[in-house]
Specification:
The complex is a heterodimer.
Chain A lengths: L2 E5 L2 E2 L2 E2 L2 H16 L2 E8 L3 H8 L5 E6 L8 H14 L2 E7 L2 H14 L2 E6 L1 E5 L2 E8 L4 E7 L3 E5 L15 E4 L6 H4 L2 E5 L13 E5 L13 H18 L3 E4 L1 H5 L20 E5 L5 H7 L4 E6 L12 E4 L2 H14 L8
Parallel strand pairs in A: 1-4, 1-6, 4-5, 5-12, 6-11, 7-11, 14-15, 14-16, 16-17, 17-18
Antiparallel strand pairs in A: 2-3, 8-9, 9-10
Helix pairs in contact in A: 3-4, 6-9
Chain B lengths: L1 E5 L2 E3 L6 E3 L2 E3 L5 E3 L1 H17 L2 E7 L4 H11 L3 E5 L9 H15 L4 E5 L10 H9 L3 E12 L4 E7 L4 E7 L2 E5 L11 H9 L4 E2 L1 H4 L9 E6 L9 E2 L5 H14 L4
Parallel strand pairs in B: 1-6, 1-8, 6-7, 7-13, 8-12, 9-12
Antiparallel strand pairs in B: 2-5, 3-4, 9-10, 10-11
Helix pairs in contact in B: 2-5, 3-4
Classes of the chains: A alpha/beta, B alpha/beta.
């Protein structure tokens, strides 16, 4: 029986939750195309990950546990995935659209010489074709895309519900690593300190700041010092809520905060349950990166700011007045997920 | 070193996009060099400034692609090629990569190909990986810095993002990389650069020039639509004090089940 294979992305021994979302999409494909869903785990010492995957509903978990895969190297991982494909009659690969998932999807699709539908938010099978919806132009437009299996699909993070954990009934199948000479010449020299905190694209709550963060007389210092204190305050709220800290491009360009926090067309495209925009006016490039958030709260002194056009709740006030009170209320009512 | 930078022309990110008769339109907003590609051009220029060599830009597309090519030339790229063929209408990422790989092979002696991470129109971000595999070269994505660049020793090392952390990867040349925004702020073209770029003759290569038959696309894009308008009517939260506003807002967010 042909298979729909899901790549289980992981880092530092932890599975990316988006992998379980990809499993849900794979079940849809398996129903439409016929075939069964398998999860695929690569690495070294990945027993626990394989068990975790086995509990999320696949028929089997293919595990390549091999010293050659001890360190993540995209070409080596992709070679192994390509080699597994004919050996296990895999018709469609599904990857979560994490950074590793996206690059592995591209390399695997190219290695198999098949088409890829990246970053899809919805998919279906029609007349044996895989038909998917994917945001383009940073979500300003939606494209319908289609291809016939064999194919590669990547699912946008948070677009599909995660396959729920149950009993680990799936069969664990050991499979070989396969690394070409080209890939063997590529070496991982190590990883730097992980940034820590919740990743922006996976966060269910994001607290974000813009130019307005530095625009205050309530704290002393120059523009940069004010901005730093402001983002510390927003970061505290984000941590309390178990969320991530975001920023507008204007704030990043002004040097208030580093680029890895940037939300928008040339930053990260996010879709959390709750997005709290503080002192962000709402340039079109920023809106493109966060407008599909479930609930948007805008806090801005300017009632005419475009951000209010996409917000469910608006507060026309100085963020320096409101955010400290929000932090207090969250603490007092026991809503804090983490000690800040 | 010989570095090739494939680039794409896209509508300005500030453009208001519409779908008219199934086609994307952007009014009189300008076409520009894909913003992500600017970082690739900058990284390529810095690399040849340190290690010698030339930067060549290539772009697949009709004459509008010249907007992107001329910007890259004005920034300092030495050479440019445009690839155009009627048979390439409807090309998907896979076809585009095969064409780019053929162009790189035709140029010969290319050490590295620098891509931007993705184009801001199609947002697929897969052309670099397909191109790497079409060439049979290693792939290193989202490079924020080169920690080693040794063209004589045919090797380089790069610091790159994997999301949760930075990874340092060492790979042999030739190779395909994508350049992240953290690499460096792209330079502004000089007045002289702009003048030179506007006069540059950009050769056009066809599929026949590349020795390729028209490759068939595997992925089709039957429809582009505007996203459904979100019926959000903002509800302003008011109160006599910030404390009261915060209390009311938290009530609303609990009610909406997001806290």
């Amino acid at each position: 029986m042909s298979k729909i294979a899901v790549y289980v992305d992981h880092f530092g021994g932890k599975a990316a939750a988006a992998s379980w979302e990809a499993l849900t999409a794979a079940q849809t494909l398996a129903q439409g195309l016929g075939g069964e869903v398998v999860a695929v785990v690569l690495g070294q010492g990945v027993d626990a990950l394989a068990q975790e995957a086995a509990a999320r509903g696949p028929k089997a978990v293919l595990v390549a546990d091999d010293p050659a895969l001890a360190e993540y190297v995209p070409d080596a991982y992709a070679d192994t995935l390509v080699a597994l494909t004919p050996a296990h009659d895999i018709a469609v690969w599904v990857f979560p659209t994490t950074m590793r998932g996206r690059e592995l999807a591209g390399l695997t699709a190219a290695g198999l010489d098949v088409g890829a539908l990246p970053d899809v938010t919805d998919l279906a099978v029609e007349d044996g074709k895989i038909v998917a919806i994917r945001p383009v132009y940073a979500g300003k437009l939606l494209a319908k895309v289609e291809t016939e299996p064999p194919a590669v699909v990547t699912t946008r993070v948070r677009a599909f519900p995660a396959a729920e954990a149950g009993e680990a009934t799936a069969e664990i199948v050991s499979v070989p690593a396969q690394v070409s000479d080209t890939a063997q010449a590529v070496k991982s020299l190590g990883f730097s300190q992980a940034a820590g905190g919740v990743s922006l694209t996976e966060a269910s709550i994001i607290v974000s700041g813009g130019r307005g963060v530095a625009n205050t007389d309530k704290v002393p210092g120059d523009e940069k010092e004010k901005a730093q204190k402001g983002f510390e305050m927003l970061g505290e709220l984000a941590r309390l809520l178990g969320g991530a800290l975001g920023a507008s491009r204007a704030a990043v360009d002004a040097g208030y905060i580093s680029y890895d926090h940037q939300v928008g067309q040339t930053g990260k495209v996010v879709s959390p349950d709750l997005y709290i925009a503080c002192g962000i006016s709402g340039a079109i490039q920023h809106l493109a990166g966060m407008r599909t958030s479930k609930v948007i709260v805008a806090i801005n002194t300017d009632p005419e700011a475009p951000i209010f056009k996409v917000a469910r709740y608006g507060v026309v006030a100085d963020l320096w007045d409101v955010v400290p009170e929000l932090i207090q209320v969250v603490k007092e009512r026991g809503l804090a997920k983490e000690q800040a | 070193m010989k570095i090739v930078v494939p680039v794409k022309v896209v509508p300005d990110t500030a453009a208001t996009l519409k779908v008219e008769d199934g086609r994307v339109t952007w009014g009189d907003a300008p076409l520009v060099l894909n913003p992500w590609d600017e970082f690739a051009v900058e990284a390529a220029l810095q690399t040849v400034e340190q290690h010698g060599g030339t930067v060549t830009v290539i772009s697949m597309g009709d004459e509008s692609a010249l907007e992107a090519i001329r910007k890259a030339l004005a920034m300092g790229a030495k050479e440019a090629v445009r690839i155009y063929d009627d048979a390439l209408a409807g090309a998907d990422v896979r076809v585009t990569a095969q064409v780019l790989a053929a162009a790189v092979r035709k140029m010969g002696d290319v050490d590295m190909v620098f891509f931007g991470r993705q184009a801001v129109d199609g947002d697929t971000g897969l052309t670099p990986m397909y191109t790497a595999r079409a060439l049979g070269w290693p792939f290193v994505g989202l490079v924020s810095a080169f920690t080693e660049m040794d063209p004589a020793g045919r090797t380089f090392a790069a610091e790159r993002s994997v999301g949760e952390a930075k990874q340092t990867i060492q790979a042999p040349m030739p190779a395909v990389v994508t350049i992240a925004k953290e690499f460096a702020e792209p330079r502004y073209p000089s007045f002289m650069g702009i003048r030179k770029a506007s006069r540059a003759k950009v050769p056009v290569w066809s599929l026949a020039d590349l020795g390729l038959d028209a490759p068939a696309a595997k992925v089709r894009w039957p429809e582009i639509t505007m996203p459904p308008k979100r019926e959000v009517k903002v509800e302003f939260i008011e109160g006599a004090t910030p404390r009261e506003i915060a209390e009311k807002l938290v009530d609303k967010l609990i009610e909406a089940k997001v806290l």
